[in-house]
Amino acid sequence: MSETQTLKKKDFQSDQEVRWCPGCGDYAILSAVQGVCAELGYSREETVFVSGIGCSSRFPYYMNTYGFHTIHGRAPGFATGIKMANPDLNVWLVTGDGDGMSIGGNHLAHILRRNVNINVLLFNNEVYGLTKGQYSPTSPVGQKTKTSPLGSIDRPFNPINFALGANATFVARTIDTHVKHMSAILKEAAAHEGTSFVEIYQNCVIFNDGCFDDVADRKIRDDMTIDLRPGETLTYGKELDKGLRFNGWGLERCSADEASTWDSTVESTAPSVMMGELANEAEMPRPIGIFRQVNSPVFESETERQIAVAKEAKGEGKLRDLIFQGNTWEVE
Amino acid sequence: MTTTKEPGSDLPLQQQESVVIRFAGDSGDGMQITGNQYATTSAVVGNDLATMPDFPAEIRAPAGTRAGVSGFQLAFSAKDIFTPGDRPDVLIAMNPAALVENIKDLKPDGIVVCNTGNFGDRDLEKAKCDTNPLLDGTLDGFRVIEVDMNQRVKEALAETDLKPKEVQRCKNFYTLGLMYWLFSRPLQPTEDWLKEKFAKKMHLAEANITAMRAGFNAGDIQELFQGRYEVPKCDVLTPGTYRSVMGNEAVAIGLVAGAEAAGLEPFLGSYPITPASTILETLAGMKNYGVKTFQAEDEIAAVCAAIGASYAGDLGITSTSGPGVALKGEALGLAVSIELPLVVVNVQRGGPSTGLPTKTEQADLMQAIFGRNGEAPIPVVACATPADAFDCAMEAVRIATQYMTPVFLLTDGFIANGAEPWRLPEVEDLPKFMKEFRTDSENYQPYSRDENGARPWVKPGTPGLEHRVGGIEKAHLTGNISYDPDNHEFMTNARQEKVMGIANSIPTPEVKGAQSGKLLVLGWGSTYGSIADAVERTNEDEDKVGRIHLRHVWPLPNGLDEIFSRYESILIPEMNLGQLARLLRSEYPQHEFLSYSKVQGQPFRAYEITAKIQELLENKS
Q1: In angstroms, rounded to a whole number, what is the distance separating the alpha carbons of residues B171 and B148?
Q2: Which residues contact B497 (CB under 8 A, 6 or more apart)?
Q3: What is the pLDDT, as a whole number, of residue B10?
Q4: Could you tell me how many CB contacts below 8 A there are between chain A and chain B?
Q5: ipTM score here?
Q6: How far is A34 from chain B, CA to nearest CA, in Å?
Q7: Which of A138, B166, B405, B609 has the CB geometry, 3.0–4.6 Å to B162, for a possible disulfide?
């Protein structure tokens, strides 16, 4: 049975009962991803979803593709092995702020710097959901949870700047409730050659409900966020009447016609890091969209290239030569 | 090699059956290269041999200190030998630290060659010698040969334009030449090696060759020794083509051979760790054989990538030592649970924690068999010698692929860096165990099982067989998430039975020596040589005790109960506190197991085991 004809969104839905809490932001992400797989013309068999541990990491069970639910924080290792063994597969890695930024922070940094051609979706809800509500490495200082009854004293990670710090080649942010934007970003991520990192603001209805309402709520979203559209001006607001511009070592608000043009392809991470830091500034819009998109050699392609070079230089190795190499002698 | 009468050849030439030499010097003195060259040459002239490097964990401890002493022992013989020898016949000491650290092992009446050029006041101080060991009676009872190698090599290379420092770096080849003379070895193999190694710096090759020849000639001209020795060809080796091989190299080649036998591409995910790093280095150099290597950011990512590669249809392998295995534990549990092939090479070293990174031990046996959360059985194969590591690596791949399971391949520092002659197998004589991937979607169930209890292996990319796996308990057949109590028990038993069933695919090990009686000596891993040597010595006149070696440590082979019942007791020498003995006591409570343990970071000497056997035999009579 080969799947040559284009599949529909429902073809990517598995027969497993989805077990996220009703109202969880994960549903919208799942739906968007299934839709994007269909739009990209993916086949089921060439697609693999890999995850670690946490609410988000149940994702592979709900995709009617190949899926691998691994161990906490380590999905990047598995994904790297999968891509090195078979570079033709479409590999998506689903992780969360705990899985990806805390226990798996090391591995995430390394897959980003290596530039393995996969897509990383980091569901950020600023809380540990599956273990029932402890603060996470993205929880803001002062957040009261079961393990921080007087408020978290941990300075949080900013996932965008974490990824940029690891020299990631594609870095973007989107919002679970902003389905159109999310689908567009996912498609851009899939098209990128190298590791694509997408932070998705995802609401946890049980343990951190409304954590992104100050920027992501539909009613205020247009005024509180700015979509980074490569090659376009940095304008935002319902009427696109507001703007941002670079001024010296910082960004400032301005009118739409004074806005800078956003270039996500500059080699330096400096402008994207400055954009990433706007997350900490209350008076500024929160950037979503594409922070960075640069070309760099893809890890598994380089691996294949070196094998080809070695075969070219030394000839295709034969097992007998390997066994009989070096100083040999005969015993009669 | 040559027909011309060599100068000084009127010196008496004596036949020796076996010789043990130990080269000892500073970490920077090149003792490992010297020892390996001596081993290669001895192999080429047809001796059986075994080697044992002994070096410090520090790359360059301060020069001349005891902490910086690096040693290399080798035994070469006209007969079949099992070990690098108990005590050296000849010790080469390049400085006072090397002398005082090693002299206690030298045989009474043994030869000690000292480089007097390094016995000045400053050298004695660095070695913390209050008195000069050349003068204070330390060397009484030994045949002492004093050579100022620093001066001799300076004279030999006076004509070159090498800097004084570079000249002194050729000293080890002077030593090598001298020892080649003493035991009548040819210089040609080392000359060839130098010319190849320094192909782009021919002046260095020539300088080292000059130094070596100077050392060789010094044996004659200066009449340092009273005579020369000759160790004839070993005539009991099985006919065939041989080469010298080190354990880690044999593991690497065996894994490639195993992958080929299974029809798979090998993928190694690894992280550098002593004493396993050379497996990663060796496989990284085999790219033209289609080997993929991934140097991960840590031990965990290394094993996870290997499992990922197996998931995608390669043969996943990870190589490490005990501390790395500790970090990989959770991922190994996942590999058990999702039932994918994986070979985990543990080159054991002294523990716990960082322990003794460059020294040997066998204390990770229980960690390999049981060291995971939950009921997570993993079969264990253990290498006996450097050459045996090739066969064991292939065997580990066979079990991993035929049973869809992670497998531990245990070696240790002694095997990893030791060398011995390897009788090279022809590819067509190697075992074959071609692995088929499932491609038929008809009635496909991810967790159905074949006659081995193994589930089907499906490569992503195969249409119609899309499925999901993970570490959560899976329902029998479908593999879907299941929290059902009865299903969990069923699956736990299914995984256990699959692994224990491997015993049906392995032979009952052969007993050598006495087939019944008072004592059976049982070993696993690198104690093989010392045990074999000790039992052969004990049985010189008549078969008094038996010996048996376990290549498969878990599951244990069938037939052991019957073998054990033929002896009053079973002696188990181990480089740990008795881990296999403890295991066997629980598996075979009806038999008496006597643990003989040694945890000094050093292998057993055969005489230690012989003495233990004697003691037990006397107590029993």
Answers
A1: 10
A2: B453
A3: 61
A4: 219
A5: 0.97
A6: 15
A7: B166
